[in-house]
Write a structure and sequence with these properties.
This protein is an all-alpha fold. Helices cover about 80% and strands about 0% of the residues. The protein has a single domain (about 1-260), classed as Rhodopsin 7-helix transmembrane proteins (Rhopdopsin 7-helix transmembrane proteins). It starts with a helix and ends with a helix.
Length: about 260
Amino acid sequence: MGNNQTWVTEVTLLGFQLAIIDISYASNNVPKMLANLVSQKRTISFVPCIMQTFLYLAFAATECLILVVMSYDRYVAICHPLHYTFIMSWRVCSVLASASWAFSFLWDLVHLVLILRLPFCGPHEINHFFCEILSVLKLACADTWLNEIIIVSSCVCILVGPLGLVLLSYARILAAILRIQSGEGRRKAFSTCSSHLCVVGLFFGSAIILYMAPESSHSQDQRKILSLFYSLFNPMLNPLIYSLRNTEVKGALRKILGKKRSV
């Protein structure tokens, strides 16, 4: 029982970090986006635009790393339950979460410095809903090859690398689940991981398609919609996905669906 209570505590801490990131995503992009939708004068000054780009990248990188920490947390809870309180203590979770935030913001300072060194000589019109980095770079009237190299490096380090670690964690989790004799135990283990796997699939899938697929494979409008899904709808879906594990939420959802069918 003590181990289960501690595991719930650590998951709550990591879930709290993910919730902060989701709120930060929305706070960074949505207010200005909504203001532009209701206004004929759709403008943003240079400094807020660059800060929007920087925060967008920093929050995305932080979420990648937090999702890795959450997958490792589940791996320890399922594969090494007796050692969980030692391996994933509150202090360890706090250090891993803090390191994820610090590394992400320091790493994205490189993007900020490289963008600030570029000259922008017009037309100053961003073909996007917000100041997304690829759209901002198209406005530069200088060679952006170094920026593009750093973006590719970031994709490898922040997307491909963490995704590989997540998949490795779940491969070991799956092997451990298959060794469980009880059917009820297997269902509980799968239930523990299902919501996190959905979030990982949505987040990493949309990000990899957006930043690692060849530019010719998607039109600008498709990229804009995908970017909007990645930065806005993903954070909106995350709380819903995790809340579906709650018995009361499931019961309320069944009642709503039952009423709609009867109507």
